[in-house]
Amino acid sequence: MTDTAPAAPHRDGAASDSPVRDAFVLGGNRIPFARSGGAYAGVSAQDLLTAALDGLVARFGLQDERLGVVAGGAVLKRAADLNLTRESALGTPLSPRTPAIDLSKACATGLETVVHASNAIRLGQIDSAIACGVDSASDAPIEVSDRLRRILHRVSAAKTPAQRLRALAAIRPADLAPQPPRNAEARTGLSMGEHQALTAARWGITRQAQEELALASHRSLAAAYDSGLLDDLVSGYRGLARDENLRPDSTPEKLASLKPVFGVRSPEVAEPTMTAATSTPLSDGASAVLLGSREWAQERGLAPLARLVDARSAAVDFVHGEEGLLMAPAYAVPELLDANGLTLADLDLVEIHEAFAATVLATLAAWESEEFGRERLGRDGAFGTVDRSRLNIAGSSLAAGHPFAATGGRIVATLAKLLHARAVETGRTQRGLVSICAAGGQGTVALLESDGKA
Amino acid sequence: MSVRELSDVPSFPAIYAAALTPRPGVRRSATLPSEAYRVRRVRIDPERAAAFDHLMGGPATDLVHPGVLHVLAFPVTLALMARPTFPAPLLGLVHLRNSLLQHRPVRVGELVDVEASVRNLRPHRKGRTFEAVTTIRVDGEIIATDVSTYLARGGGAAEAERAGAESAAAGASRTAEAPRREFVPPVPTGRWTLGADTGRRYAEVSGDANPIHLSALSARAFGFPRAIAHGMHTASRAFTEARVDLRRPLRWDVEFDAPVTLPGTVLVGFEPEGASDGGAGAVTRCVGWRPGRDQKGPRRCFAVSVTTLG
């Protein structure tokens, strides 16, 4: 980066003047994802994140390195974990002088940490970073009820024993019930699965199409393990070497025999088509991605796998039913590609997080719809078609599981490696898209690119 | 209309107790009282307003939820309706509709004058209806008007005969419309899971301790097999979820149909904000219904619309 003049605003945006430099994905490390109550029951989110970071430090020789930042987050987070990322980083051989930040955006948390850290690198504020995320459904925080909390605060503010007793007397048996995290959108009371069931019905997504996608996810992830693709992306932890949810031997018959799980409590909500096999299970796991400028990578002899080109986020009004809860990426992706002068056909690889098989299929259906393109995206017609042979080619969340904030890091590191390998192989620049939907009607998407050069 | 000044907002329990006390020898009047009740300088308590907001699932705002204005004025209306000579007994009245027009935002902590009156006693195929009207004023200027339409069951046919030919014709035409249209629910946008304590929690923030809402036992004493959710509770929650800009003048209309029994589940369907029929403002609509089960079809419980004006 040249900065001969004091930080004057850049008006012409010419490349040579640009204050923005490139940020690269240099590698990643995650622990195998476990099913809730499985191999990681009894360990904490901090344990899991520390393990993922520790593996990354070991893999890239980052002992005593002072990085620009460790940006991380978790969705299910205890109040005591306010500095979860900092505390986890302090438990690794990284220099204790490496700052950390905790971010939060539901299931998009992991990808947002990548965007946050790479933006700081692009602006020249820092040269290197780790973006990471963790979640443990097995160790999800359990809180006291709102009423009990308010009463206890009143008790602690009381000045006399009589006041204290009066405050305590307000406690009713029902107030004492522990409050686990709600599996429902705060504003609608519908679970995420039920919201997705509505969207699936709206787009006519069949059970069979969902099951085909789920089977492909399991087969692709199993193949990724078998081919060695994940050897330098995953480190075993607590006896687990592969993702606990992975079922390489699943069959169409087995999937077809499962009972639907969403849309069942109220059949009026939607024709039930979604099963446990086409929905991600509650999971435990952590992932980390190493990011750096070209210079920082070169100094350490690290190959820049892929450049983080750009990112966008979007949100939809699901509360009043204008759009489906998990459809925000259907809006964010067109915005991202337009801004970069690209179309879906220009993408070599596409990663759409499989919150549910139906989420992926509804997003693809929306992009293929003339009506959606015209009325929702304000285009002349349909946005386009994703070549299914380029979609989630190393498997995705249906097979791997989905520890919420860890999913972004899993996808970014895997995609960067795939893009780099293909760029080296073909000699052509390879572009990849990451699309992640999140609770609250939000979504974050990012564009990666690799020229295959070391 | 004469106005009787009350020194303070009457207490709910006292009114309900009075309404339950037999008054031998006192005859109910055939007409509505022409007197209005007024309480001056009632403070909108910020803590109570916050508790109301929280129960409805919204943030505690400095501009009050219009449901708070309703519950603030309600005891004054209730005192009027609990008079021993009132044409219908208080317990057993059915809230059919509510319409609140708010001309300007109201802040927590404001002092308002509340005036309650009743009007328009009319025959109905199931009895008689009348309207309770409350006005909220500050310095003599009306800032909100709340109109609640109630049904007093029974005695309708006899009353209708006695009423003029015109009213009788109106009543008959309404009866002709009577066969209930089958309710076809929209795509739901949410589900409210209402626990057995729903009525008690609303009573805590509203003060309205009507026994039919509090528990199955107290509801049974008044002929309801189970407790039912307070209509203004479901209507207020729908208002909160409509995400209305409280800085604007607004109109909040509610129609009540089937009761929401407790504990129970209500599916709700919002329509995204659209232009109002008159085209003057933006309207958000919501319906709530009991899901169908076995042979029983879905039943509409309420329909709420919120229109922001100007």
Automatic annotation (TrEMBL), chain A:
EC number of this enzyme: 2.3.1.16, 2.3.1.9
InterPro entries: 3-ketoacyl-CoA_Thiolase (IPR050521), Thiolase (IPR002155), Thiolase-like (IPR016039), Thiolase_acyl_enz_int_AS (IPR020615), Thiolase_C (IPR020617), Thiolase_N (IPR020616)
Alphabetical list of Pfam families matching this protein: Thiolase_C, Thiolase_N
Gene Ontology molecular function, alphabetical: acetyl-CoA C-acetyltransferase activity
Active site residues of this protein: 107 (acyl-thioester intermediate), 402 (proton acceptor), 437 (proton acceptor)
Ranges for domain Thiolase C-terminal: 303-449
Domain Thiolase N-terminal: 24-294
Superkingdom classification of source: Bacteria
Keywords: Acyltransferase, Transferase
Cellular component terms (Gene Ontology): cytosol
Keyword Transferase: yes
SUPFAM superfamilies, per database record: Thiolase-like
Entries under CDD domains matching the protein: thiolase (cd00751)
The keyword Cytoplasm appears for this protein: no
Family the UniProt entry places it in: Belongs to the thiolase-like superfamily. Thiolase family.
Name of the protein in its database record: 3-ketoacyl-CoA thiolase @ Acetyl-CoA acetyltransferase
Organism encoding this protein: Brachybacterium nesterenkovii
